[in-house]
Amino acid sequence: MTAKKSLLMGCAAVGAMAFVSMASAAPFNIAGPTASNIDTAPDDPTVLTFNVSETGIINSFGLSILIGCEGGVCDEGGSNSYWDNLSFSVSHGGVSALVFDLQTDNAGSESILDAIFEDGAPVLTVDDVVLSGTTAGTFGPADPFSVFLGLELSGEWTFTFFDNIDLEDDGTNLLSSSIFGTVRDDDQVPVPAPAGAGLLGLGLFGLGALGRRRKAA
After folding, report:
1. For the chain, how are helix, strand and coil distributed in percent, rounded to 5?
2. Which domain holds residue 92?
C-alpha cells in the first residue's frame, strides 16, 4: 500500500470516528405512573412521582399518556372524563414543562386522551379536542421539552395534574403513561469534534506535503 493511500485511509477513519461516535445514542422507554381521580382542585393537585434507574444524558425526550374513565367505561353515575379540564406538567432535575392547560370543558363526559407529546409536533389546542370521543395523535407540549436535554435521565420524575375548572373529582383517571427518548450511549467514547477535526486537518496537510515532495523529485 502506498504512503498516499495509507494517509487517505487514516483521514477517512478519523473523520468517521469523530462524526459517528458523536451521533451515537441509546433509546429509552420507561413506564410512568397510573392513578385514579387525578382531577383534583388547584390547591390540592395530584402529584405523581416515579424513580428512573436507567442512566445517561438526555438527547431527546417525549411522553405518552392515556386519560379516561375507570376501566375505560364512562358513565353519568360518577365516572366521567372531561380530560380537557386538566392542567398537566412534568418535572425533573429542578426544571418543569407544562404539557397542556386548555381550561375548557369541550371534551364531554365520555372523552379519552390517547396522545404522544414531543417537541416539533403541533401544540395541542382546544380545536383538537374530540367531543365525547377519543382525542388521539402526536402533539407538541405547551412548553418545550428541550428544557430536559442535557440532564441526567435517572432520578425522580414528577407528573402534576389539577382540574382548573370547578368540576373536579368526576372520575378522570390516568390509565397509562410513559416517558421515552434517547440518551448518550455510554458504551462509546465520543471523539471531541475539535480533536477529530484537528487530526483530519493534520492528515490532509501531510498528504499535501507528500505531493509536493514527489513533484520536487
Report:
1. 25, 35, 35
2. 26-186
